[in-house]
Write a structure and sequence with these properties.
Helices cover 44% and strands 15% of the residues. The chain is α/β, with parallel strands linked by helices. Helix 4 runs parallel beside helix 6.
């Protein structure tokens, strides 16, 4: 939808009008026409107007003529047309040169053509544009209805681009100073066809450009959207013409509505997922039930738990929701003790959203990958340990990495094996003789914070069997697991065995053998 421009007027044979500065400002939009014989029409006539004069108000001096054109140009007046062989003084070439320099069209209409002919042509064009604008607006809202159930807004953006005759796309947060939702701004894309001197408003040529625009010109406009993450909606058009700002504003409102509806749906899903994860952590939901719901959401093993620093006032929750949704990474997340806790599938796609979340929270602790949901509690402990040991501003820190090592254990493998052997050696000897997995039982029991119920579930054994095993462990090692000191020694021995590579780094998967 190119609109009625100076070029449109010149191409209409009925108005018998020519340009006295050929090729200048011919893409400037004309919305209405007005006769004026005042020496300063810009005080009374607004932007996009065609000023029609018999020449009575045109100054005689060349410098004054240039100022006459300059005043109308500054007011955004589209063009001035002067009646041929009427009351105008001789028109100075130097004034024409100034008009060409600033990009202001100076036209001449044949003596025999009444100005009502020009005014009618402009009015009829405006009515056609209004009708076309209504039709395009109806089509855009129809596209919103048609794609109401779509997964994402990509199909909607494609159809809006087709309706508007260009490309419509979403980009990241609009960080431009002064950018406001609802205001359509012209931007440069770096494309070879960009016109840096073109109009700031789409659908208008009333800028400082001196040409009519080439067929290869490329115009881009953008506006921030008033929705989560404040994404940027960008419009790109090939050629000098672009739809009116009102149409682009309608498109921005439509995309905002679609995003808001989808974000509301995601928020509802997040609320349900938050309750599910909280229940998993508390141990109040059956693992089989939770596993079915995770699978339905596309969250599959191997899994990881992630914990952030404080979410208070930092926008961490919103950043996490946006980052994971943008990367199409399904997740469960909840707030626990003032921190954001995530349960997600371990995959390469997770790296980017975790960095974005760490950019808000400062640090994200990540557990080692684990299999079934029985490992949630141990993985949460790992993530919390990684977070605590990494410190503020450490970014994404994985459990077992160099930056998340134990404060109390050496790093030399031989020393680590010696520490592990002091506690675990007798258990390993017992295992080789009897076949009972006491080391694994001890590890799971400590990972579950000495919870009889959760440890038995992870090990797939009866609670009484677990009681018997722990009693055997205490007898073999000579330590009382009700004692914090003895439990801490056992835990450090487990950590030393993991660091030395004698045990897997991830939480052990239960075994009833």
């Amino acid at each position: 939808m190119s609109g009625f421009t100076v070029r449109s007027l010149l191409d209409d044979p009925a108005v018998k009008t020519r340009s006295l500065v050929p090729g200048v400002g011919e893409d400037r939009r004309i919305s209405w026409a007005h006769v004026s014989e005042l020496p300063d029409p810009w005080r009374w006539i607004g932007a996009d107007a065609l000023v029609m004069t018999t020449g009575l108000a045109v100054p005689e001096d060349a410098a004054d003529q240039a100022a006459y054109y300059e005043g109308m140009h500054r007011a955004g007046i589209a063009a001035v047309t002067i009646g041929a062989q009427m009351s105008a003084p001789p028109l100075a070439e130097s004034a024409f040169a100034h008009a060409a320099k600033i990009g202001f069209p100076v036209l001449e209409t044949a003596y025999e053509v009444p100005y009502i002919v020009l005014a009618t042509a402009v009015a009829e064009a405006a009515e056609r544009e209004r009708t076309q604008r209504i039709r395009l607006t109806e089509r855009m809202y129809g596209a919103l209805r048609a794609h109401a159930d779509a997964d994402g807004v990509t199909p909607l953006l494609a159809e809006l681009g087709e309706i508007l005759g260009g490309e419509v796309s979403l980009a990241g947060r609009d960080e431009r100073a002064g950018a406001e939702p609802g205001r359509i701004d012209r931007v440069l894309t770096g494309h070879a066809g960009d016109e840096p001197d073109a109009a700031a408003d789409p659908g208008s040529g009333s800028g400082s450009g001196s040409g009519s625009g080439s067929g290869s010109a490329r115009r881009s406009f953008q506006t921030p959207l008033l929705t989560l993450g404040r994404p940027t909606l960008r419009f790109t058009f090939d050629g000098p013409a672009a739809p009116e700002p009102s149409l682009l504003q309608h498109a921005a409102g439509i995309v905002t509505s679609a995003l808001s509806v989808q974000q509301a749906a995601r928020h509802s899903e997040w609320m349900y997922g938050s309750i599910l994860l909280a229940n998993l952590i508390d141990g109040t939901v059956p693992l089989e039930f939770a596993s079915e719901h995770l699978a339905a959401r596309g969250i599959v093993a191997p899994l990881v738990m992630c914990v952030t620093a404080s979410v208070v006032g930092g926008g961490t929750l919103e950043a996490a929701q946006l980052a994971l949704a943008t990367a199409n990474v399904p997740s469960l997340m909840t707030i626990k003790d003032g921190q954001l806790v995530l349960l997600v599938g371990s995959s390469p796609d997770l790296a980017l959203p975790l960095r974005a979340i760490a950019g808000r929270s400062g640090t994200v602790g990540v557990s080692a990958p684990f299999g079934g949901l029985g490992g949630v509690h141990g993985a949460l402990s790992q993530a919390e340990i990684a977070l605590a040991q990494a410190g503020d501003g450490a970014g994404v820190t994985h459990f077992g990495s160099a930056g998340a090592g134990s404060l109390f254990l050496p790093r030399e493998p031989g020393q680590l094996r010696a520490i592990a052997g002091q506690v675990l050696g007798p258990l390993q000897v017992y295992e080789r003789r009897r076949g009972t997995p006491l080391v694994h039982t001890l590890r799971v029991f400590l990972e579950e914070n000495r919870s009889w119920v959760r440890a038995a579930e992870r090990l797939f054994i009866h609670r009484q069997t677990l009681v018997a095993r722990i009693a055997r462990i205490e007898a073999v090692t000579g330590r009382d697991l009700n004692s914090m000191e003895d439990a801490a020694e056992c835990w450090l021995a487990i950590r030393a065995a993991i660091a030395a590579g004698e045990l897997d780094s991830g939480p052990g998967v239960g075994s009833g053998s």
